[in-house]
Amino acid sequence: MTYKMLFTGRSFVAAAAFLALGSGGALAQDLTKVKTGWLRSSLSLVLHPIALDEGFYKKRGVEPVTKVIRSGDGAIGPQSVMSGELEVYIGVISDVAKINSEALEIGQQPPLAVVAIGSPGATNLVLKKTLPFNGLDDIKGLRIGVSSLGSAHLVTFRQFLAEKNTTVEKLGLRLVALGGGDMPPALVSGQIDGFLHSQPTPSIAIATGQAKLVLAPSQMGVAGTSPNVGIIVSRKWAVANKAALTKFVAGLRDASDAYASIPKDRIVKIAASHLGGEPELIAASYDSVDPRLVAGQQGADTYWSVEMSAMKERGEVGKNFQQKDLFDFRLIE
Known about the structure:
By secondary structure, the chain is of the alpha/beta class. The chain is 40% helix and 19% strand. The chain contains 14 helices and ten strands. Strands 2-1-3-10-4 form a five-stranded mixed β-sheet. The protein has a five-stranded mixed β-sheet with strand order 7-6-8-5-9, sandwiched between helices. β6, α7 and β7 form a beta-alpha-beta unit. It starts with a helix and ends in a 20-residue tail after the last helix.
């Protein structure tokens, strides 16, 4: 039978469906819609746009209906998952830990779960170019921009300082809450002396000629290796919609597995489209970022030794808060 014969008369629709399935794609009407929140913050979170634009979600049979959460407003994501406005949220983990710990403190079960984890080592410290930096003593008293006072980058930096036997308080750092996109202009205008964020924000600031990178993730010891991005769901929704969640995470994992083989210029194009910014600056950040997912238990153990130990020390979560109260990888098995 020839393609010409297939595309005659009433057989046209059936033939189109046959060809679509034969190419490995799912029919539009077969796709499961998932209300998805995505933190539009940095290259650390570019895996979701890659999965969208490269068709990895579609091949798994899901269609994320994406709501963008602005950098600095990350706490909205977990709250929206709790209210049912979102079904899946891709963002930082620390706000989830606080919500679940508070639930346990009043005798309730933790409502949220992190079912996959990724993007190890994303925190950078950038300073105004005119400021000296030969060590941590040089940042005493400076105004440092952070996306929020619960920022994952701030948590990582606090743990790095602990490894160096000092703290934000001992250094007298003044923390200023700013969205990631506002950090470079705030530094240039003198509102802040530096900031903590992931790429490409540091490269954007450096391109102004008035900023310099003084600490990259590779210079922050164990703290610099901690994953900070989680796939976050309501436990109740996950149990009732396990098939949809499993397909959703599988699409992200496919994008993660393919990341190293996707041409750099394609990654840059996707990032520029979804995150904004100049392509050349994103390209300059490419080698400093790893947005991929990591093995669940390994990532959880690293997160626990870095971020969670710092959060417990500061009383942001209860002393008895355990891994099972935050992570549940069984929900996608």
